[in-house]
Amino acid sequence: MVPGSEGPARAGSVVADVVFVIEGTANLGPYFEGLRKHYLLPAIEYFNGGPPAETDFGGDYGGTQYSLVVFNTVDCAPESYVQCHAPTSSAYEFVTWLDGIKFMGGGGESCSLIAEGLSTALQLFDDFKKMREQIGQTHRVCLLICNSPPYLLPAVESTTYSGCTTENLVQQIGERGIHFSIVSPRKLPALRLLFEKAAPPALLEPLQPPTDVSQDPRHMVLVRGLVLPAGPAAQRHGGRHPHGSHLNPQHPI
């Protein structure tokens, strides 16, 4: 069994390392508020054990840690392709980071720099591992929020993962037992393929396609390692997660 691949954690009951990787371009901007309301806030509530409050704080390294990676457009020079927030144990602070994202540029581009975002996320998980040496294995989740397929170009900014393509990176995510999820306002086959390639080797994927738990029929929401309220499509399939876990709403929207 790959560490961390045992299935969704129970809300607020385990120590988790959670990284949101978000496309910070104009392609996603118009849809972000809806995605935030229906999927991102419920995901944060799931790991926090309830709605974020200003008094929430899990300590320096003992509780769940949240980190945010925002990747930009190819024409963002002289700015970096990626902005990264240092981890916080405050779910409330994490939500303020989401609310502060500026979605700019890239409106005419058909692809996005997902490889840059995921390479930075893997670097963060490496850092989490060093931070967590005293408490051991944690439940690790990487959530990609975007509205574009990836460029075929490899990552260039990450020192550790430079040269890795998006497919290389999601395969490494799966091999390390990191649960990979995708939230998109569109049903993009290229993103679904990334989700499938990120399956941990020890996790026997069912033959049927993974269940989409989106609240809006235009959206695509594929999750591992967390529970979100079941959307209409999942409810038609009995409200079950693709790995057999019931998708009963933890915190109804």
Automatic annotation (TrEMBL):
InterPro entries: Mediator_Med25_VWA, vWFA_dom_sf
Entry keyword set: Nucleus, Transcription, Transcription regulation
Subcellular location: Nucleus
UniProt domain Mediator of RNA polymerase II transcription subunit 25 von Willebrand factor type A: residue ranges: 13-226
GO process annotations (BP): positive regulation of transcription by RNA polymerase II
One cellular component (GO) term of this entry: mediator complex
Region (Disordered), start-end ranges: 232-253
One Pfam short name: Med25_VWA
Domain of life: Eukaryota
Matching SUPFAM superfamilies: vWA-like (SSF53300)
Family: Belongs to the Mediator complex subunit 25 family.
Function as written in the Swiss-Prot or TrEMBL entry: Component of the Mediator complex, a coactivator involved in the regulated transcription of nearly all RNA polymerase II-dependent genes. Mediator functions as a bridge to convey information from gene-specific regulatory proteins to the basal RNA polymerase II transcription machinery. Mediator is recruited to promoters by direct interactions with regulatory proteins and serves as a scaffold for the assembly of a functional preinitiation complex with RNA polymerase II and the general transcription factors.
Description of how the protein assembles with itself and partners: Component of the Mediator complex.
Protein name in UniProt: Mediator of RNA polymerase II transcription subunit 25
Organism: Pongo abelii
